């Protein structure tokens, strides 16, 4: 479904004021986009934007950047974003997370959210997982020293892989649960579209928060 083409999506994105274009030119200067020095939180693979838009509403003193690779998905987020032009603390980028170090400077990001990322289940594709050692290395460069990554998924295999990888790479686990909605960590939890869908089907939601 993520790869289904939406006619005109690229043109819509290119013309949108809610998408930051030429994003690499803002490396180290994201405060120029938001016109303040508030912390920057990013969601990688934001999908249709439900989570990050709610975060922006809830935390007006934090700047949020939603990153999505697929134009056909990002354009759906834009449809929602256009209904709330007053959210000045939110912008979108269409890009592949592989190039994240080209877009953010060292210690420029305070928090990274990885929500229901593609599990890439075949072993040969493990390095493409957003919680692989390769990606954790990239996050190390852009996160502040006291920055965190929050990861949620209903995929048990991906979660166990992610926990093991975080440990192997020397990340510290601040909190972890394999049943988020029935845990102490659910207070204040903002759900994504996939989270609502999968929890509604009876799936348990795994979550961990880690830091360097």
Q: N-to-C SSE series?
A: HHEHEHEEHEHEHE
Strand order of the largest sheet: 3-2-1-4-5-7-6
- How would you describe the oligomerization state of the chains in this entry? single chain
Rg from Cα: 16 Å
Task: Report what the structure shows.
- This protein is of the alpha/beta class.
- Helix content is 29%, strand content 22%.
- The chain is built from seven helices and seven strands; from the N terminus they run ααβαβαββαβαβαβ.
- The longest helix has 13 residues.
- It starts with 8 loop residues before the first helix and ends with a strand.
Compose a concise summary of this entry.
The protein is α/β, with parallel strands linked by helices and 212 residues long. Helices cover 29% and strands 22% of the residues. It is built from seven helices and seven strands.
Features:
7 strands, 22% strand, alpha/beta, 212 residues, seven-stranded mixed β-sheet
How does the SSE layout of this entry go?
Layout: H1 9-15, H2 31-34, E1 40-44, H3 50-58, E2 63-68, H4 71-81, E3 90-94, E4 109-115, H5 133-142, E5 143-153, H6 156-168, E6 172-177, H7 193-200, E7 206-211
Parallel strand pairs: 1-2, 1-4, 2-3, 4-5
Antiparallel strand pairs: 5-7, 6-7
Helix pairs in contact: 1-4
């Amino acid at each position: 479904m993520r790869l289904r083409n939406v006619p005109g999506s690229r043109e819509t994105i290119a013309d949108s004021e809610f998408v930051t274009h030429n994003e690499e030119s803002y490396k180290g200067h994201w405060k120029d986009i938001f016109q303040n020095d508030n912390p920057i939180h990013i969601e990688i693979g934001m999908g249709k934007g439900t989570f990050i838009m709610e975060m922006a509403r809830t935390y007006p003193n934090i700047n949020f950047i939603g990153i999505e690779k697929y134009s056909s998905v990002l354009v759906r987020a834009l449809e929602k974003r256009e209904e709330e032009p007053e959210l000045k603390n939110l912008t979108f980028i269409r890009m592949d997370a592989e190039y994240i170090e080209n877009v953010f400077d060292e210690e420029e990001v305070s928090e990274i959210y990885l929500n229901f990322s593609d599990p890439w289940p075949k072993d040969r594709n493990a390095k493409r997982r957003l919680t692989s050692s390769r990606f954790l290395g990239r996050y190390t460069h852009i996160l502040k020293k006291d920055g965190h990554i929050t990861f949620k998924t209903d995929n048990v295999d991906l979660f166990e892989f992610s926990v093991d990888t975080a440990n192997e790479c020397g990340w510290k686990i601040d909190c972890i649960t394999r049943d988020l909605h029935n845990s102490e960590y659910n207070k204040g939890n903002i759900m994504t579209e996939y989270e609502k869908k999968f929890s509604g089907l009876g799936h348990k939601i795994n979550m961990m928060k880690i830091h360097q």
